[in-house]
Amino acid sequence: MTGPLLLGVRHHGPGSARAVRAALDAARPTAVLIEGPPEADALLPLAADPATRPPVALLAHAVDEPGRAAFWPFAAFSPEWVALRWALDHGAAVRFADLPAAHSLAMMGDPTWSDEDDEDTGDDGEPAADLRRGLRVDPLAALADAAGYDDAERWWEDVVEHRPSHAEDPFAPFAAVAEAMAALRETYGHGGHARDPVREAYMRLRLRAARKEHGDDAVAFVCGAWHVPALAAKTTVTADRALLKGLPKVRTETTWVPWTHRRLARRSGYGAGIAAPGWYAHLFAAPDRPVERWLTKVAGLLRDEDHPVSSAHVIEAVRLAGALAAMRGRPLAGLTETTDAVRAVMGDGSDVPLALVHDRLVVGDVLGEVPDDAPAVPLQRDLTRLQRSLRLKPEAAERDLDLDLRKDTDAARSRLLHRLRLLGVDWGVPAASRTGSTGTFRESWRLSWQPELHVRVAEAGVWGTTVLSAATAKARAEAAAATALAEITALAERCLLAELPEALPVVMKALADRAALDTDVGRLAQALPALARSLRYGDVRATDTAALAEVATGLARRIFVGLPPACTGLDADAADEMRGHVDAVHTAVRLLPHTDGTPADGSTDGVTDRTPAGTGGTASDGAAPDSAPAGDSDGGSGGTTPGTGGTASDGAAPGTAPDSAPGGSGAAPGSGGTAVGRAAAGGAGGEDTTAGWAAVLRRLARRDTVAGTIRGRAARLLLDDGRLAEDEAGRLMGLALSPGTPPVDAAAWLEGFLGGATGPGGRGRDRSGGMLLVHDERLLALVDAWLAAVPTEAFTDVLPLLRRTFSAYEPGVRRTLGELVRRGPAAGGGAALTAAGTPGFGAGHDAARADGVLPVLELLLGRRQPTDDDLVGVGR
Fold first, then answer.
1. What residue ranges carry the coiled-coil annotation (predicted)?
2. Is the Cβ–Cβ distance between 758 and 583 less than 8 Å?
3. pLDDT tens for residues 591-647?
4. Which of 664, 657, 615, 613 is nearest to 636 (CA)?
5. What is the pLDDT of residues 540-586, one digit of tens each?
6. 724 by DSSP, 3-state: which?
7. Closest Cα partner for 272 from 451, 425, 79, 127?
């Protein structure tokens, strides 16, 4: 050959890779230049390390701003990777020759450097051909269009991938590609790629230096085919240096990082990506009969997923793919033909198996590997060490990980994942337990390592050199910068999960300071659940949470004092939001410790005791005895309108004392004159937070100035906790659904009473309100009678609330309710309660029939062994 060998390729093209290998074998150059950042020249020998397994990528990032980064990916079938390995295997000098990353990273975000904003015009002052439409030129698409193809991928496969190698002239394909690109560059100029003239100027300088060192005929340059005409053009050194003059520059670091086939796909955003990296890897690696081997892989995948596929299916699919290729005039069956054959033969015309094939094979989750001695920031090295010691291998494919925190290894894994999440490295995200466990000693994660996480690790390296020190430093910084109380409580929870003992005191001080200054009940209610959850983690993680418990209890008491007045005078949206706060506080209070240090719900080691909280309490501690009407202890007369009665036990009549009176929201926590204030204080007599919260709920349930949805929800929570008698619940419902109550207000009360818990998961998650109506037809009769009496003109206003409430029930519950209502009073559905009992039900429990299940339960629980004469299900 004469002059340097310019090998124009398609990035990640297996056909180009085979052609590059053949051309290099024929030319035997002593120097190989490759399109890439020159800063990575020192890393090139690592490509020959046995531990390096593509796909991999060069990562370059700014030292002072690690988030300013760029990747240069390489797959086994990338022409650049093939040229790199050829040079290393044959002892040839190899260098990268693209614009340095120091310049390209410095110009990130500069609009004058952006291709999309370029508006260069042609020689006649008008935008060049396709630039009139504001589009960047795709060289392959332009050539495919000229050849009469509407799909650039299919044209490239027919012309390059499916053609036999040019053994007689290995340079012929590159000469043809160079001629085609020269014609395109003559028509389109830089084709909307504004940065290309600068890059190509630097490439020419590197090419000149290599020619001077090794000779004109001893240099090969592997680059994108689009650049070949510019490299072959006659320009001066002065002109090229003028283009590079004044470029900004930043200090950079480079390293090798693992990459994935999924990130090579065009749909994942990499500009030079391909739609089917798994298919191209197969074409490059298959020694012969690529179609037969591919369809065999597909059959194996489908069989592994329990699809009935046999060898006969493979044979028929190969025949069909070949026939389709012949009918379409293609030299060989491509991905389109094989996909059509799989759909018709192996999928019985369904696209469902195709989705699996596309995800697992056409794209794939192959994750590359890099050697241990590849440069890395200290934080990355510490993370790699922890991954090995904990046997947590990074994998691109998503996988579930269940942890038992009672085991040392699993607890360490949990700490690592939580610390990484605090640093913004979301290798794992919490997932719902596959076993349905709700105990605090179990955690479930979904892991997936993506190449971009290397950048996140580099960014997090500014906080420290180890995962522990970096997470601690970042937690302290976030605590100092946080302005919202909910932010600090969430941070405290994350610090406990990540076990950051040195950061927790700083976070707790910030939490106490912020909580003391915040007077908004809504924000206090948002902050409490995270603190309560954190207290549960202390037991299983052996963390001292005494300071946290003190802050959480004080926060709860302030909520108890301020919540009743905050729930008055609310519109529908504000009431709905406040109802969510009530639900959140109710759940949180059950997790707060009693004076003896046990959680209020009686749970131990994450297992919740289902005994109703507060059972056995006395009227003096703000809780009504379970056997007494709830109204007798709250100051409200059992037969009077809620909010009008009062006794000395309450300190102030709920319906008459103004909210600003002593003991209201303006009083110091626990110093008010109301029962709520005294119960919230939790001082003398060993009173706990559950008693104070029950007093707050009773007050909310009886105040007619509180929004209906909150009153209904308060009554429901009291009923579920065994602090409200069923008769009293029926009385409250009767009052709420009385003719004097506006239909919209009555519907809101029903939504609060019968609807599910609200929160991040949305309303209706517990769905137990429907079962309440199924098993208590007295309440169903009240709802039915009220709904039948709603005036026609008001029904359209009530319907959305009712639909929202009842649509959350399970289909079987809705069907049962419909059957009960359809039967009517005569058959039992919708009848009022009489002295004889609820229609459709017995007058009381039949103890003999109930005992019939005991032998079955004992056998299931293993408390006794069955005998031959056991009559299972028969009472003893």
1. none
2. yes
3. 777 544 455 554 443 333 333 333 333 333 333 333 333 333 333 333 333 333 333
4. 657
5. 555 566 777 777 888 888 888 888 888 888 888 888 888 888 988 88
6. coil
7. 79
